[in-house]
Structure formats: structure tokens, C-alpha cells
């Protein structure tokens, strides 16, 4: 399997790219990853339309599940013939509530899954106050493996990933808008989730600055032994890596630690 993580840049300030322009550019990068790069799976980051820390934009840029980003990304997945985790959007539901919602499309452009982020960041401000919490565990079955979905701050909660393993997940796909000041945690936690669950981790972050918060970048792919297969730098980049999903089963057979779980 070949995966491409699109570490798109989202920048503040004068002359900043519009949301619509960034949608078009992201769609172009998805097509390039599939048509030219040969990717089977493409991943975008968390809240890349607005920026994960641009809280004041959540309400103004929120969209229905099947809104503008859905339409552009569905077509990009179909054009490229890839499984596309289109990162997350600020979703406004029919009752007017906001959620941090991920969208996954099949190679035919059909919506394969959506996931509302369960753990909201901010404590008593920002996302934690402005957005509702998801409640559903979500996996996506591909021909050769199963994806388990999580988003950014979810990475700090290992019990979620245990539940995803119990739901047959072998690859955790984690879009994020992770801040540079906690970049060491990003790498450490990605490797920890891979090792403790004997699963692949594909964690895709943003580059740039969101509402004055510099982003970590450094998207990362980790194998079931915790080895880093590839890692991006701090700037906008498309990180592409080839890996074998069957290594998950082989690792779990070779070192069957999960069979010794008590809780």
C-alpha cells in the first residue's frame, strides 16, 4: 500500500489564502498524489480549511456535512481513484451545533465514513467550548486492511485506540493541527500508540501558523514495531510511504502481547 500525507500549509495574516482557494489547492494535491504519485490512500490534516486554532473562524466557516468541502473532496477522490481521508471540517449540523468532523471517501467518491472528534481540545475555551463531542467509534474497511479514525487531541487517550483495535483496526489515521511547542509529544505519542496496539499510525499535521500558533508539521508514519518509516519536516510537504498492511497480523502473531490483556 502507498499512502500520501498532505501536510498542507495554513497561514495567517495579510494576503492569506482564502478557504475556497485552499480547497481547490488541496484537491489538486490529492489528484497529484493519486494520478502521479500512485497513492492508494491520501490523508489531509485536521481543520485545514480554517486552521485548528482559528477559533473565531469555526462559526463563520462551518458547513453542512455535505457542503463545499464534501463536494470538492468527493470529486478529488473519484478523479484520483484513491481512498481519501479528507481531514476534518467544522461541521454545522441541522440543529446548528458545531462538530470537528472527519470525512473519508472511497475511490469512487462515495462517503465511506464520517467521524466526529471525541476528545475536544481547549479545556475551558476554544474547541472544547465551541464544538460538540462525538460519541461514535468509527472504522473503515479497505480491501486489504481496516482503518481506525481519530483526530489530533484523541492521540492522548490510549483507551480510544484499544477500542479501535477491538473493532479490527490495523491502521490508525490521525489528522491533526498540532502546535510546534508540543511537537515532541506528537512524535512520542504516535510511536506509543503504534507500539502498544501493534498497528500502523499515519498522523498528518499542518504546516504554517493558526491564529498566531505555529504548527508542528512533522507528519509521521510509524509501523507496528514503533519504527518511524517516514517523517516530514516543518513546512508544507507531501509525505509518501510504501508499507505492507499484512505486517500488523505478522507482528501480532510473532509477539502476541495483545493476547495477554486483562482489562
UniProtKB/TrEMBL annotation:
Alphabetized UniProt keyword annotations: Hydrolase
GO MF entries: hydrolase activity
Entries under Gene3D superfamilies matching the protein: Carbon-nitrogen hydrolase
Keyword Acetylation carried by entry: no
Database matches in InterPro entries: C-N_Hydrolase, C-N_Hydrolase_sf, UPF0012_CS
Ranges of residues in domain CN hydrolase: 1-245
Entry keyword annotation includes Hydrolase: yes
Domain of life: Bacteria
PANTHER family in the cross-refs: DEAMINATED GLUTATHIONE AMIDASE (PTHR23088:SF27), NITRILASE-RELATED (PTHR23088)
Similarity annotation: Belongs to the carbon-nitrogen hydrolase superfamily. NIT1/NIT2 family.
Listed name of the protein: Carbon-nitrogen family hydrolase
Species whose genome carries this gene: Streptomyces scabichelini
Amino acid at each position: 500500500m502507498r499512502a500520501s500525507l498532505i501536510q498542507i500549509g495554513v497561514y495567517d495574516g495579510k494576503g492569506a489564502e482564502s478557504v475556497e482557494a485552499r480547497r481547490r489547492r488541496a484537491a489538486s494535491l490529492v489528484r497529484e498524489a493519486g494520478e502521479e504519485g500512485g497513492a492508494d490512500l491520501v490523508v489531509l490534516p485536521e481543520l485545514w480549511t480554517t486552521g485548528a486554532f482559528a477559533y473565531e473562524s469555526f462559526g463563520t466557516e462551518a458547513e453542512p456535512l455535505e457542503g463545499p468541502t464534501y463536494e470538492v473532496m468527493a470529486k478529488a477522490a473519484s478523479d484520483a481513484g484513491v481512498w481519501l481521508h479528507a481531514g476534518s471540517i467544522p461541521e454545522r449540523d441541522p440543529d446548528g451545533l458545531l462538530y470537528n468532523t472527519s470525512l473519508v471517501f472511497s475511490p469512487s467518491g462515495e462517503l465511506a465514513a464520517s467521524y466526529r472528534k471525541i476528545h475536544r481540545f481547549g479545556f475551558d475555551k476554544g474547541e472544547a467550548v465551541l464544538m460538540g463531542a462525538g460519541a461514535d467509534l468509527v472504522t473503515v474497511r479497505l480491501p486489504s486492511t481496516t482503518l481506525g479514525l481519530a483526530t489530533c487531541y484523541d492521540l492522548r487517550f490510549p483507551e480510544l485506540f484499544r477500542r479501535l483495535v477491538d473493532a479490527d483496526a490495523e491502521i490508525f489515521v490521525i489528522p491533526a493541527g498540532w502546535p510546534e511547542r508540543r511537537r515532541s509529544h506528537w512524535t512520542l505519542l504516535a510511536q506509543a500508540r503504534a507500539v502498544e496496539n501493534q498497528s500502523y499510525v499515519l498522523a498528518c499535521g499542518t504546516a504554517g501558523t493558526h491564529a498566531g500558533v505555529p504548527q508542528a508539521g512533522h507528519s509521521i508514519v510509524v509501523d507496528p514495531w514503533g519504527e518511524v518509516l517516514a517523517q516530514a519536516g516543518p513546512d508544507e510537504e507531501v509525505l509518501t510511504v510504501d508499507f505492507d498492511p499484512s505486517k500488523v497480523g505478522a507482528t501480532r502473531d510473532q509477539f502476541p502481547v495483545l493476547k495477554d490483556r486483562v482489562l
